[in-house]
Amino acid sequence: MNIKPIRTPEDLAAALARVAQLWGAEVGSPQGDELEILALLIEKYEDEHFPMPPSDPVEAIKFRMDQLGLTARDLEPFIGSSGRVSEVLNHKRKLSLAMIKRLHEGLRIPYERLFEGA
């Protein structure tokens, strides 16, 4: 097993090519171990060079609304009056901790998606 650190885009390309060759390797085998190590190195490189912006809580709420077929009116038990729901959905009001808790418990939106910008 000859694993090199990933420092350049060329290193990344080589690592991704090797992952493609190893894909489906049995867990615990030398090839499976190499695949796991390469995946960790690729993840570290991508985290450093292509950081993901924080998620937008409003987009998380809208996504969940779409999944469940909800309307703004359906959010009133979690956020408050229709005016407050509108303010939140239009980025004019941040979520309070109480709103975050109710949205998490009622709509199962992960806390980490709701806390950005709270």
TrEMBL record:
A molecular function (GO) term: core promoter sequence-specific DNA binding
GO process terms (BP): regulation of DNA-templated transcription
InterPro entries on file: Antitox_HigA, Lambda_DNA-bd_dom_sf
Top-level taxon of origin: Bacteria
Protein name stated in the entry: Transcriptional regulator
Organism: Pseudomonas gessardii
